[in-house]
Design brief:
Helices cover about 45% and strands about 20% of the residues. It contains nine helices and ten strands.
């Protein structure tokens, strides 16, 4: 097991995780603001987009620090990076507060490294302002090394631990094409969430009067079982995931509330000889 993987099971981090999560949830309380920071309006997490600005500024500053006579421009870029790191961190912490415990442990170390890197860049700016350009460049390069290590941890979070990815993306690739029997229509009670298996895949079924709505039962955020959630009226019937509170329209599968940013695959339905059949557009 490598060092990064050991962070996943580092239970000694849990008190720090609990404290940081409580602080984030007490500061970022507005559901509307949380959705914006999660990236619900754009259908994609905001944090990976936001980090491009400080990282780009700091990498550019490192290049300019190697070019004689570019001290002032490098300092400006370091300042831009330090300022824009703040909204990036806010978005990142908001996403982090809705992850599983193993992801949160790695994420906390990732955040600590980014904070340390930002601190090194601030020291670099102070040294530059005092005319100590050599020391300023040194702290700048230390900051770049630290933020690079933090980026490696961020990659582990995304590519190894699957934080921030769409956990329902594989459904159209695994579900067979065509129509498939679900169950007799009289088995479904009105207004109740039910789980059915079709082609060894779990589906969420909700009856609304004479209409049947069928979605993937695996929450796109972190694979929560939607059938164990609750039905909420948010202008239309929605299912709220029991794990992290993501809300999806039962009629369309679209995200109504984060932290999920990707909607649920929605199945077409029909009734043939009293039996409900389902089909997933684009499947197979």
């Amino acid at each position: 097991m490598n060092l990064v993987s050991r962070f996943e099971d580092a239970v000694w981090l849990d008190p720090w995780v609990s404290g940081a999560r409580g602080a984030v949830n007490s500061i970022v309380r507005s559901p509307w603001l949380r959705d914006v920071l999660h990236g619900v309006p754009v259908g994609h997490p905001v944090h990976p987009l936001a980090v491009q600005v400080p990282l780009g500024a700091w990498i550019s500053a490192a290049i300019l620090d190697a070019v004689p006579g570019s001290d002032r421009a490098a300092g400006v870029l370091i300042g831009v990076g330090a300022i824009t790191a703040v909204p990036s961190a806010v978005a990142g912490f908001t996403d982090w507060s809705e992850l599983h415990e193993q992801q949160q442990r790695v994420g906390l170390v990732h955040a600590a490294a980014n904070i340390a890197a930002t601190g090194l860049y601030i020291v670099s700016l102070v040294e530059r302002s005092r005319g100590r350009q050599t020391r300023g460049r040194l702290f700048g390069y230390l900051g770049l090394a630290t933020v690079s290590a933090a980026g490696f941890l961020g990659g582990h979070l995304t590519y190894r631990q699957a934080a921030g990815v769409n956990h329902s993306e594989d459904v159209p690739h695994r579900f067979p094409a065509g129509w498939h029997g679900l169950a007799p229509v009289n088995e479904f009670a009105d207004g109740k969430l039910e789980r059915r298996m079709v082609a060894r895949m779990p589906l969420l079924v909700f009856r609304e009067g004479e209409r049947l709505h069928v979605l993937s039962d695996v929450c796109s955020h972190l694979s929560g079982p939607l059938h164990e959630g609750e039905v909420a009226d948010r202008g239309e019937p929605c299912v709220v995931c029991p794990w992290h509170g993501s809300a999806f329209s039962l009629r369309s599968g679209e995200v109504v509330g984060g932290p999920a940013t990707a909607g649920q695959p929605r199945f077409s339905t029909r009734v043939m000889n009293g039996v409900v059949e389902v089909s997933l557009p684009g499947a197979g």
